[in-house]
Specification:
By secondary structure, the chain is an alpha+beta fold. It is built from 19 helices and 19 strands.
Length: 443
């Protein structure tokens, strides 16, 4: 967003021989990020008012509480009916309720745009495998190692929250509950074969947690075994499992399911702590925001809750088998203002933006969406972020998706993904080659 700090930074980059302009080239991100991300860091950080981001974090915590109350409010506590409404596969139900089906602990990343006036909540990732943990504190830390930027930061009184340190402290605290006075051992566990498929970020997070002082390891479910009453990863006794495996992996792989059951049982026996249980997946579905936004359900919320939803959640509607013809007609009529998002995919996969589609493609997308389970969401136009090219000196306008991290202590930091305006509706490191990772400082 184009605040005073951003304007001062851009002006500083324009000066001849400016060290600010090249700060992003000088900073050594390769030592703290995966190779894939280290080569794709924006030349400058983003800047946001500290009070504004913390106010939105408070709002996001309240939205989290609303989302996790949806089964009770809208379905009289019937989780099967809730899952059916969200198109969650029936085969996942026993897994998602294996540890009781209750609301999960607060551990999430809220993705939002800033439209120039306020933040708008686009998606709520309520899971334990939150992407970007290694970027949130480490990109700002590396910028501060560049003298020109450090001087700018001191002059403008910039600060940042190191999400990795906060998460490491949380995992150590959880481990203390079961470690019996030992330094707890934490293991990030993916499903069998998951690390070979895309384990770069997992290993980067592992290195981050070790820099933060944790006894931290990265592996897969089939590397776990039981010895006596304890759970081991290779030769290490486990105290905390940071879950990176998914319900889908367990549903299709009997080996993964059998190994996960051992983890579940040890969690129940209080031998280990599983962070977080698969119950989180019940609330990470994009259809949850549609339930909050849908006028059919407004009677289930208080006036204050409705005011919160109206303020921070853009118009969002479920496109399922029971989608009203009037809703589909509205989506056709307002094609240039709406995008379609699949309920359960991530990383920008499956998103169709009406303003980037011809009439035929949009009509076909609306025809197939009810069978697959989608939401329609009103377009939010993000405010511009001017960025000075470190080589040419030219100024180009970018746009950002902000990622706000939340833990039981509340606000735990913020990062961003950015792409040039006009480079596509999806700002994703996996789905858009022009997307860059950005550090964030608060002012």
């Amino acid at each position: 967003m184009t605040n005073r700090t951003t304007a001062a930074y851009v002006a500083g980059c324009a000066a001849d021989g400016s060290g600010l302009r090249t700060a992003g080239l000088v900073a050594d991100f390769s030592s703290v990020l995966s190779d894939k991300v280290a080569r794709r860091v924006l030349p400058r950080p983003l800047f946001v008012d500290d009070a504004e981001i913390r106010r939105f974090a408070d709002d996001a915590v309240r939205v989290f509480d609303l989302i996790t109350s949806l089964p009770a409010r809208l379905f009289d506590g019937d989780l099967r009916a809730y899952c059916a409404a969200l198109r969650i596969p029936e085969s996942w139900y026993p897994l998602l309720t294996r540890l009781g089906g209750g609301p999960p602990p607060l551990y999430a990343r809220a993705d939002m745009y800033h439209d120039g006036g306020s933040f708008q909540l686009l998606e709520f990732n309520i899971e334990s495998n939150l992407g970007g943990l290694d970027r949130t504190g480490e990109i700002p830390r590396k910028f501060l190692e560049v003298d020109a930027f450090a001087r700018f930061a001191a002059e403008h009184r910039l600060s940042h929250t190191h999400t990795g340190k906060r998460v490491a402290a949380l995992l150590r605290e959880l481990g203390a509950e079961v470690a019996e006075g030992r330094e707890p051992t934490v293991v990030l566990l993916d499903g069998p074969g998951g690390l070979a498929e895309d384990g770069g970020e997992s290993h980067s997070i592992g290195e981050l947690m070790r820099r933060c002082g944790l006894d931290f390891h990265v592996g897969e479910l089939d590397e776990v075994s039981e010895r006596g009453s304890h759970l081991f990863f290779r030769s290490r006794r486990i105290d905390v499992v940071l879950r990176d495996f998914s319900a889908h992996q367990l549903a299709v792989d009997p080996v993964a399911r059998r190994c996960a059951e051992l983890v579940f049982r040890k969690h129940e026996d209080r031998e280990i702590v599983l962070w977080t249980p698969l119950e989180s997946t019940l609330y990470s579905n994009k259809g949850c925001l549609a339930m909050l936004s849908d006028p059919r359900f407004r009677s289930a919320f208080t006036p204050g809750e409705l005011a919160l939803v109206d303020r921070v959640v853009p118009w969002t509607r479920a496109i399922g088998q029971d989608a009203a013809p009037e809703l589909l007609d509205e989506c056709r009529e307002h094609k240039d203002e709406i995008l379609l998002k699949p309920n359960s995919l991530f990383g920008g996969a499956g998103i169709v933006a009406g303003w980037e589609s011809d009439d035929r493609t949009w009509a076909e997308s609306l025809r197939t969406a009810p069978r697959q389970g989608y939401v329609a969401q009103r377009r939010v136009v993000p405010d511009r972020e001017p960025v000075v090219d470190p080589v040419s000196g030219e100024v180009e306008d970018w746009e950002a998706t902000w990622g706000l991290y939340l833990t039981p202590g509340g606000y735990t930091g913020v990062s961003a993904r950015v792409s040039p305006i006009g480079a596509g509706a999806v700002i994703s490191m996996t789905a858009n080659a022009r997307t860059r990772a950005a550090g964030v400082f608060t002012t």
